[in-house]
Structure formats: structure tokens, C-alpha cells
Amino acid sequence: MILVLVETENGAASEISLETLAFARALAAEGGGIAIRAVVVGAVENRDALAAELGTHGAAEVHHAVGEAFTSYAGAAWAAALQAIRESTGSVVVTAAGSPRGNEVLAHLAARLDVPMAANATAFQGLAPFVVTRQVVGGAAMEEMTLDQRPAILTVAGHSWAASPVSGASPAAWVEVTPEVAESDLLARVVSTGTKEVDHSGSLKSAKVVVGAGRGAGGADGFGAVAELAELLGGAVGVSRVVTSLGWRPHHEQVGQTGSRISPDLYIPCGISGAIQHWAGCASSKTILAINTDPEAPMMTKANYSVVGDMHEVLPAIIEELKSRGVRG
Amino acid sequence: MTNVLVCIKRVPDSSGEVLLTDDQQGVDGRYVGFTVSNHESCAVELAVQTVEATGGTVTLLTVGPSEATEQLRDTLALGCQAAVLVEAEPTRLGPADVAREIAHVVREKEAEGTTYDLILLGNDAADSGDFQVGIRLAHALGRPVVNGVSTVEVADGHLTARGDGPDGEETYSPPLPAIATVLEGGVEPRYPTLRGRMAAKKVQIETRPLSAEPVGASRVRLLLPPPAPSTVEVLGEGPEAAGAVADLFGKLGVTR
């Protein structure tokens, strides 16, 4: 049996959790039709809708952990729930999205069971031995790693699989469980949650268009046209590390290895050379249009389209052209 | 008084081209140089700020080759008082080994009378990207751990740690001793002063051997993703390219 920890977002499964279910289904098929169970922890807004959604993405059952221990997040408590469900189902593989929560909870589980964990897997090669390929060096390199103990514990890198619903699938059966959680597993739990800032990285990660800017912006006041184009295209602003290091823009706008990983339909990096760390954060973009004065910059050769020129001249011209064509954002 | 232990890792600088060693077991840093990750630089800054606020000491620890003394010296210069090197060939170690070695040092120091109230690590290593050493360490020591934090504060026997969560900024408040893994972004790491560099030179780095035979990383090999063939289509130069860009937007359907 394969266990998939599913995170929810506004009541529905997060996109990256659905991608993980797609990975699990490929693994299940390779194993000759291994059953998939989803695990959900804590409050669920609409059980029927979530059961239907997870059924559509390949889970036969949802094990829902409830109780006081799960009213606010604690990584160790979530791992305790996952451990109990793993034992009752006899699962041989436990997986989750390669998200902050997914990596954290599975690392707790791996530590508790004293087995290895592979973070950010993108593929597997056969089951015996079970070898997975995973992202290292922020996605700049890959590692093939053997997971020879059971359960095999791994997280699935975001955007490495596409969520793929099956038409006509039945809703997953709902199994409510109340796992015991030790006091010590609740010492590090969320005691308060602030309000989400407007324009937080959430919108950056889900934006269909991202207009990026790097050192070429020239200063904190060099982002006017960048923001205007983003608004005109209904997109978000993303920046390189140097921009946040210099304090020109807030950290939550950073795209890259230590910022947000984005996968928009169109990414428009302006004045960004394209260092490895930045590339790691934007490589999943479907189309890249780079604007830079240096035609030899890595971003300009890796992009699908390029414009050679100063972003401060090119962006206003693009904005003017769009407006003349009736684009109003 | 707070005794803080910060765990750092000597890693190849991956801001430029990433090269692999011939045996495909590690990232080759010979031509690009070595550094510590941005997450760890922020962890060191948080440790130094904590000790400035409460008194106490910052001790650095690394598990790695003898050359990692270079990263320990550089980091000592930022206002840390002591450093421990557990000497090991890094490609032989997996995340469980690193956690076990750190736990071993912490327990031995405790037996000698030094308790580290707060242990800080980076959220993930810049090279091996395991995302688990801090958590395995917490498990080995039986201490609470907060993951992916950007700020920490120590008061009244508790750690207050904050980080970004899916629904906004999250606050955790576990009792000390506690462990936190740090994500870059909450503080701006300081630069070393001349005085700091002089002080760092005088610190005796404690060198220790591994406490147990490593279990390893189960690594088959490292690979570089195949370079994407450059198929870039140049739309034009300067402002004159605006028309072609607008056409492209139309083709991609991003202008509604």
C-alpha cells in the first residue's frame, strides 16, 4: 500500500499534493496495482468534496486524523498520525509533496522509524531495488538514491509530475482516525498565525505570468515598469536574490533556490543574468522571454524568446504597445 | 545567558556552474570554491544576535573535511566564541550520520557541563538537499524542533520562533532546550570586522573523529540535467521589439 500525505488549501487538496498522487499512481501501476491511501490531518471544510477530489486522483480511501492535537500544526504530531496510519495499513511507501510541510513531516516520520528519506524525488527506476532520482543542489543536479528499507519514505518535487484526474472514479471512502499523540510531540506547535500579507508569495507561485527583475533594475525605484507590465498581464512580480539582498524588494518576491519556485505560463526575466540559484526557481516556466542588455547572459541563451536591450527602454515600449492594442489589465 | 550551537556545512559555491567529481559522488568545488549556505549564514546571525541580547556563547560545529576549518574561521570572525570540527569525508555520510554525530557532541558537552539551550541549523544543505538533519537531531536528543524559521528570540526559558506558513506568519514557542532550522530572509548576515578576524585566529578549533561507522547516503550517483539546447528566438533589439513582444503575448494568450 502507498500512503500519500495530502495538504489542503482553502478546503481542496493543494496542487502539489495532487501531483504527488500522480507520482503515487505511476508507482502503484509499476507495482502491479498497489492500493493508494490518502492521509489528511486536522480540519476539513467539506469532506464530500475532498473525498470526491481525492478519489478522482487515485486514492481509494482517505484516512482523516482528527483530535485536539491537530487543531494547530505541529510537525511531530502530524508524523505521529502518519506513523499510526502507516502501521494500521501496512503501507510500504509513504510519500508527500516536497513542500515545507511535506518535507518536515516525512523527515519526522523517517527519524521515528529510523529509515532513510529521499527529499524532492522527480522519478523512480524500478521497484527492486527501489531507486529514485531526486533534486540536489537546488535543482542544479540530480541524485540517484536507493531506498532499500521499508517503508520507503520520499517527497515528490513540485512540478515534476502533472496532476491527472481520472474520469468516472468513485469518491474515496472516508475513514476517521484518532491517533494518540504524545505531549512531547506538541511542544513545537503553531501558537499563532498572522494574517497573510497581500501579494504574498502564494500569488507569485500561482501566477500565470511573472515579470521578473534583477540587478538591471538599477535601484529600489527601478521597478515601476516591471510592476505595471505585471498588472497589465494580470501577473505577479518576481525578483532575483541580489534584489532582495540589496533591500530593493521584499524577500517574499524572490524567485530561486532559497525563494519561491514558480511555474507560470510565461516568465519575463528583465535584467536577470540567470545564475543557477535563480534558474532553479524558474526552470519550470512553460515559456521564458528574457530581456537583457547582454545577449550572452545565461538567461538569454536558456530562454525561449529574447529581446536584447535595456529593460528601462524595452518595458515602457511594450506597455505602450499593449495599451495601443487595447490591453487594459 | 544562552548557549547557542550553530551547525554549518562546507559546500561548493553553486552560484556559478555546478561540476561533479569524476566518481559522481559529490559536487566538485575545486574550481568554484567553498562557502556555507545562505540559510546557515542567517542562522549564525540569529545566534550572534541572541547572545548579544541575553549573554552567553555561540559555538560552531561542522561535520566535514579538515578544510572546513576555513569556513569555521570565517564564521568565528562574526562573533562566535568556539568551534568544533568532527572530521569526516563528506561523501561517506548520509543525513542520519550527520545528525548522530552532532547529537554525540551535544551529549558529550552536556556530560562535561555545557548545555546548548538552542541549536540552529540551516533548513536544508545547499548541496545534498536532504531536508532532515535538524529533525533527526531533535529526535536523537528528545528535543522540540521548529522548521524553516526566519527569526528567533529567547526569553523565560522558551524559544519564540517565527516563519512563513501556508496561511501567514506562524509563531512557535517551545521550551528550551530547543532546535530550530533557519530559512534565509529574516535577518541580514553581518560582515566580519578586523577585530573579529583577529579574535577568530586565536580560537582553538576542537577536532574530533567520527563516533561511529557511517551508514552512508544510499547514493548511487549524481547526475547533471542535460543542458537544454538553446533554441532561443531573438524577437529584436531595444524598444523596436515591442510589437513582436505584443504579438507573442497574443499568441500565448496572456493578454485577455
Automatic annotation (TrEMBL), chain A:
Domain Electron transfer flavoprotein alpha/beta-subunit N-terminal: 2-190
Signal sequence segment: none
Cofactor(s) listed in the protein's UniProt record: FAD
Family matches, as InterPro entries: DHS-like_NAD/FAD-binding_dom, ETF_a/b_N, ETF_a/FixB, ETF_asu_C, Rossmann-like_a/b/a_fold
PANTHER family associated with the record: ELECTRON TRANSFER FLAVOPROTEIN ALPHA, ELECTRON TRANSFER FLAVOPROTEIN SUBUNIT ALPHA, MITOCHONDRIAL
Family: Belongs to the ETF alpha-subunit/FixB family.
Quaternary structure and interacting proteins, as annotated: Heterodimer of an alpha and a beta subunit.
Biological role: The electron transfer flavoprotein serves as a specific electron acceptor for other dehydrogenases. It transfers the electrons to the main respiratory chain via ETF-ubiquinone oxidoreductase (ETF dehydrogenase).
Name the UniProt record assigns to this protein: Electron transfer flavoprotein subunit alpha/FixB family protein
Source organism phylogeny: Bacteria, Bacillati, Actinomycetota, Actinomycetes, Kitasatosporales
From TrEMBL, chain B:
InterPro entries for this protein: ETF_a/b_N, ETF_b, Rossmann-like_a/b/a_fold
Gene3D superfamilies according to UniProt: HUPs
Residue ranges annotated for the Electron transfer flavoprotein alpha/beta-subunit N-terminal domain, each copy included: 25-217
Cofactor: FAD
Subunit structure: Heterodimer of an alpha and a beta subunit.
Annotated function: The electron transfer flavoprotein serves as a specific electron acceptor for other dehydrogenases. It transfers the electrons to the main respiratory chain via ETF-ubiquinone oxidoreductase (ETF dehydrogenase).
Record-given protein name: Electron transfer flavoprotein alpha/beta-subunit N-terminal domain-containing protein
UniProt source species: Streptomyces lanatus
